[in-house]
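Q: Structure for this?
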Amino acid sequence: MVNEGPGSGIPDIVIGRLPIYLRALNRMLQEDKEYTSSHDLGQRLGISSAQIRKDLSHFGEFGKQGTGYNVSYLYEQIRHILQVDRQWPMAVVGVGDLGRAIANYRGFVPRGFRVVSLFDADPAKVGDRIGDLTVLSFEVMTTEIKRQGVQVAMVAVPAEAAQQVADQLVEAGVRAILNYAPIMLAVPEDVHVQYIDPVIHLQRMTYYLKP
Amino acid sequence: MVNEGPGSGIPDIVIGRLPIYLRALNRMLQEDKEYTSSHDLGQRLGISSAQIRKDLSHFGEFGKQGTGYNVSYLYEQIRHILQVDRQWPMAVVGVGDLGRAIANYRGFVPRGFRVVSLFDADPAKVGDRIGDLTVLSFEVMTTEIKRQGVQVAMVAVPAEAAQQVADQLVEAGVRAILNYAPIMLAVPEDVHVQYIDPVIHLQRMTYYLKP
């Protein structure tokens, strides 16, 4: 099992489903479940078993006819494919309420990420302790990110500031940005951006509600 | 322009893009931009102009050959289609760090939502003031949600508690749940669920990073 890596021609939408499979497998491990099937996994996730088999077939042969998938084996393989069988150091930019919640969140470490530095533009926040970390200023952001080899960052600054922050992060070597600011970021082609904006999800649902 | 409503046969993936168009149009309004085009909008969003025209054509004729779309008109029409030209009362369940950040977030009101009640299972948190609201216990959740006619809720409790919370919310009349707990929820068919799990987004990007 080798990581096929970028440019391997595997559609990004397939890659996008792997973390969801991984989360379900992790839950099965917690339930001491030893074997699963594409049918079983599909039922939990609301995805067809054919889709799951097709997605996994991009990466190799993981199950056996009849017995299905060994949960722990498939879990480890997907962790390896997604490169989360290690810990990625991560920076958080913006320590308002949301940035603080992110900094304190204990769900990152078991899933491949560790917050190693916090930054804020507000001099009143610089020097604050959050957990084991001290909030640093934007002035030292580039140096600090380079020093720690950070490739992953979460942006939780106001919309107006987000593009400038992203530019600085990319300049420092960040290649994956999870953006909480409600604005699209312009980044070079080799930089990946994902977005979290709760209102986008809420507005998608209100369409279906009775007024 | 009438809201086509559910069962109108418009694919959910189209509905899912409307909030993204809305956010971009709102930004254009802030920039005092009067007209836009599917090309212009597409450039900002990394979506093809053909896709945007096709998406909008489900709901009517919004632009004019040559002049394009009037930003403020299209903005209002999409607000109307998504039913966010009103304010939906919203409950937040779980007031840990994340729940507090959500409760304090000022980005909901201008986009159609107002947090009207907060709940937590922890007796030590019940009675806490967050902004203008007092944290209530799970015991009064059903009554309170019914009283306020809440149809929209955000769930920010630990994974183990999320399904039970969802069941209680649905029972009380909630029809749209934004779930921050890292677990899939089982709900009746007429209840909509959207998920936010930052790790899912992060893991999707690490696949592409150099180790």
